[in-house]
Amino acid sequence: MRAFRYARATDPGEAAALVAGVPDAVYLGGGTNLVDLMKLGVLRPGLVVDVSGLPYDTVAHRPDGGVLIGGAVRGRRLGLDEGIRSRFPALTRALLSGASAQIRTQATVAGNLLQRTRCPYFQDTGTPCNRRSPGSGCAAIPGVHRDLAVIGTSDACVASHPSDLAVALAAYDAVVEVRRPDGEQRLVPIHELHRLPGDTPWIETVLEPGDLITGVHLPPPAAPSATYRKVRDRWSYAFAVVSVAAVLRVEAGRVGDVRIALGGVAPRPWRLWATERALVGTDPGDDDVRAATRLAFADARPLPGNAFKLDLAADLVAAVLRELR
């Protein structure tokens, strides 16, 4: 076992001071992903700063219908929150499908957003992986890549982001609240939090060293109908092959507003901006929705083992919008 230092922060300022100037320091929330990767030797931090006791564990419902979800809120608590269940049903569905009851009890909202890819080559220290070992190569491209990304990828990395919660938050236009080490607050739209791999796949988010996710802002829901649906290899706890979060408002039989985000297809939650624009004002049938969904994949780079995801995503979006209508 590789030795590391452990410290438990009692306030945000102390947490920032602990990690200041320590390049291999990490924050610990629930630890459901971090601890596993430490056991595998994928991550080897010299300092682990426990922030689970910081005062970011509340769900605050605002009079306008929006919500501020603390970064330290556990998945179980958020999934059982009646205000979330009634006004943000896609979020609840994503939480319940994203982890076992035991993991939801432990995992935090901030940790969920920052969890690392489940690409098998990232987790196998005996294989090349640019995310784990910069410049070593990507074993997934010529190897097993069925469950990996088809869009937003590069020649350096084809890993997909595993979070179900992040996909639902993307459909709800969430904004992530970040505390900088100097105490300054920064707001980051959820679709800007995760970076595409490009030539530097080991830089996974826009967060700077010492930045701490303190909460997630949800604006009032844009439409009354919403859901989350996930295609996975087994019914029990499993990561998405493809998932869809959708928020829909229909006016006089036509689409008044629609927000769609996909999971399992990209290095971050993938918002279907072009599809949304194409559908607003229309009365689309399934074939129209499939065609509009494919607009979002104009720049897709599927590999032989995962090209099926393009049709699967189009079919899934069509099925979800049919259900919501």
Automatic annotation (TrEMBL):
Keyword Endoplasmic reticulum carried by entry: no
Keyword Oxidoreductase: yes
Record keywords: Oxidoreductase
SMART domains the UniProt entry points to: CO_deh_flav_C
FAD-binding PCMH-type domain mapped to chain residues: 1-223
Listed Pfam families: CO_deh_flav_C (PF03450), FAD_binding_5 (PF00941)
InterPro entries (alphabetical): CO_DH_flav_C (IPR005107), CO_DH_flav_C_dom_sf (IPR036683), Diverse_Substr_Oxidored (IPR051312), FAD-bd_PCMH (IPR016166), FAD-bd_PCMH-like_sf (IPR036318), FAD-bd_PCMH_sub1 (IPR016167), FAD-bd_PCMH_sub2 (IPR016169), Mopterin_DH_FAD-bd (IPR002346)
SUPFAM superfamilies registered for this protein in UniProt: CO dehydrogenase flavoprotein C-terminal domain-like, FAD-binding/transporter-associated domain-like
Protein name (record): FAD-binding molybdopterin dehydrogenase
Species, as recorded: Asanoa iriomotensis
